[in-house]
Amino acid sequence: MGDDQQVRASATGSGAVAGDDDVAAGLREQVRLLERQLLEARQAALVSRDHVVGIEAEIGRQNADIVRLHVEVRRLSARAKRLGERKDAQAKRITELQDKLGAARKSSATLTRRVGELEAVAARPSFARRVARRLRGSGR
Length: 140
What we know:
The protein has 140 residues and is mainly α. The chain has a domain at 18-104. Helix content is 96%, strand content 0%. The chain contains two helices and no strands. The radius of gyration is 58 Å and the shape is rod-shaped.
């Protein structure tokens, strides 16, 4: 061995073991770091899976709400249609009844006028009474 090599060997003799310890410590630190990163990645994966499950459950609830609301919309649409038809039928009936009422009022007015005429005629004494009254009146 040369002088340089002996100096290096004596300087690194105990240093070689110390260097190996430093390398081993560095590797242990890397392993701990990697294990910590692995645990964090697993935790993140679990959290992500929980979020996915929660989102899928929310989607299921929303789909159920959509189906329920769709059924309710169909039911209410059918009811609105029936009520619209009923309203139209009632409007038609009201128009018919108003026409009948107008005709009945006209007929009533005609009958009332005729009754008035008949009562006016009935209020006048008959022809025979009028003649008799004149004859009696001239006899006095």
